[in-house]
Amino acid sequence: MPARPLTHTRAFAHGFRDGLSVPGFVLISSFLGFGALIRQSEFTLFQGLLSTATGWALPAQIAMVELYTAGASFLVIALAVALTNVRLLPMTVVLMPILRSRSTPRWVPYVIVHWLAITGWAQALRVCPELPRPVRISYFMGFSMVLWPGAMLGTMLGYYLAGSVPLAISLGLVFLNPIYFMLVFASDLRIKTRVWALCLGALLGPVLHLYLPDMSLLVTGLVAGSLAFVIGGGLSRKKQSAS
User: pLDDT tens digit string along 28-39?
Assistant: First the structure.
């Protein structure tokens, strides 16, 4: 970020520029897989684009398509999507106090929360604490205004490319986004809690999947995150007492 004072316009432009780099490419590639999935599942392009524009949460979108294709009831689909997206609540609780300033109108967070996705959340946690508080929302919205239409572009391209690219390759692109998310957090090893969470999650995930295939992801996140919080907090207090 430049040394000169940032205006809202400059912060928005820097966020937009950052979104045009690796994060935007990864997200578009991930939604290529979703576009291929909706075509294979005999959804229309309009339905796929509507899902991306309004929901914009890839795991929940995939769950919705797969459950609908399997003949699940709308109640089951709604519950599955809600449980998949419950992760967005703690993400919002963590991020909004970082983005808001005293001059932020109370209605603004309720609007911008729609553009909260895991890629933008990770980027905002990494960049926004280094920015002046009044322009953090502008940076976040500039970054998100690349990712949101990019996700719809990826959905459309994946839909039309589904017949020319093997389905396994198309669907494999979906995993680019969580891999990128993991690398973003792994790049900042100063925060030990993140290191513990990543390591414990990587160890527990495959093991729990053998015994709880339907709930392994949720249980892994809960157990690994909780242990990382306890261990990281204990080490931090120990370090403070020693100093």
Answer: 888 888 888 888
